[in-house]
Specification:
mainly alpha, two-stranded parallel sheet, two-stranded antiparallel sheet
């Protein structure tokens, strides 16, 4: 098999392709590593990195809440296909949501069949509260940079008009923010 150094170099090469925007080249490189005789840690890491590339098929500024839900659904289909057993069945699928990701997992759950479980870690249960925290970061950043504060109502108006906000170095698209604001985590229906 490959040595750890050779495998690490191949992983680094795939990472460089991904950062340079060569998505297809990076996916092919991760696939090659995942299917190789590399140490299990590298194979598993390649599978995870490939799945993350599938999920991030665009810039954050081009996305919406519904696009994120579609991405999770697409990732679940990819995982099931990738790990299908000889009889065509797939191992149990769990959705894991961390903080605001719990809202995303909960929103995607009804669209997926045969989900074994839902693991929510420090879940945010109201999207409105999550959006409020992002907007507070914007206000705090402006105050810290000496630009003065801006009111929450003004920030919400900006988003409602379809304009994205730059917050802590990230673009928060209005379609994503407005969808997040409407999200509520509801308990799954009993099986």
């Amino acid at each position: 098999g490959r040595t750890g150094y050779t495998t690490a170099a191949l992983m680094t090469e795939a990472d460089i392709k991904a950062r340079a925007g060569d998505r297809d080249g990076a996916i092919a490189a991760y696939d090659s590593l995942a299917d190789s005789k590399a140490p299990a840690l590298y194979r598993d890491l390649a599978v995870i990195k490939r799945a993350l590339l599938i999920l991030s098929d665009g810039e954050l500024g081009d996305t919406s809440w519904s696009t994120w839900i579609d991405d999770v659904e697409r990732a679940a289909a990819w995982l099931r296909a990738r790990h299908a057993r000889a009889d065509g069945s797939a191992p149990p699928l769990w959705l894991w949501g961390l903080r605001t990701g719990a809202l995303l997992a909960g929103a995607t759950l009804p669209r997926l069949a045969d989900v074994a479980g839902l693991l929510l870690w420090q879940p945010t249960v109201q999207g409105k509260a999550a959006l409020q925290q992002f907007l507070r970061l914007k206000t705090a950043g402006r105050v810290a940079s000496g630009q003065g504060g801006v009111g929450m109502a003004e920030l919400r108006q900006t988003l409602a008009s379809g304009v994205a906000l730059e917050i802590a170095g990230y673009t928060l698209p209005s379609a994503l923010a407005l969808g997040l604001e409407q999200a509520t985590l509801r308990p799954p229906a009993p099986a």
